[in-house]
Write a structure and sequence with these properties.
single chain; mainly alpha; 5 helices; 2 strands; 36% helix; globular
């Protein structure tokens, strides 16, 4: 929080729960409980308010995604209809239709975004060449 207050540079906090898999060294480690995740998301939102987005990967929490929306998550992160989650290959991405349904059912609107959040698309964070291209991409999303 202090670093963000000083530099204003943190666009998101990713709260990615650990999931076990039989092929990893940590296969016998305990996964966080739903309450652990709720507490972590809620406290992160309380600390950072709306200054920083809170992201919880939807493919790791298919049954509980809406709970995280209600306690502070405002970003699903990168999801792909074309690739697997390379970090968590045993957890397939939900479809865009699934994400849209659960997002709207919780009272929110699913919207595409770039990897650079809109408030960071400026000369403070991007060089002129990258800024120009990013602004064009942002315009195409908005139109």
């Amino acid at each position: 929080k202090k670093l963000h207050e000083k530099y204003g540079h943190i666009q998101e906090i990713i709260i990615q729960n650990f999931t076990t898999s039989p092929t990893i060294e940590m296969k016998n480690y305990k996964e966080p409980s739903l309450l652990d995740m709720i507490r972590t998301v809620a406290v992160s939102k309380l600390i950072f308010k709306d200054e920083v987005s809170i992201q919880v990967p939807p493919n790791l929490n298919l049954e509980t995604n809406q709970v995280f929306l209600l306690c502070g998550t405002d970003d699903w992160g990168g999801v792909s209809p074309l690739t697997e989650d390379y970090v968590n290959p045993t957890s397939p991405w939900p479809t865009f239709n699934q994400l849209e349904r659960l997002t709207e059912d919780a009272g929110y609107i699913l919207a595409e975004r770039l990897c650079v959040y809109k408030k960071y698309i400026n000369a403070n964070y991007l060089n002129s060449k990258l800024l120009e291209k990013t602004e064009k991409l942002q315009e195409s999303i908005e139109n």
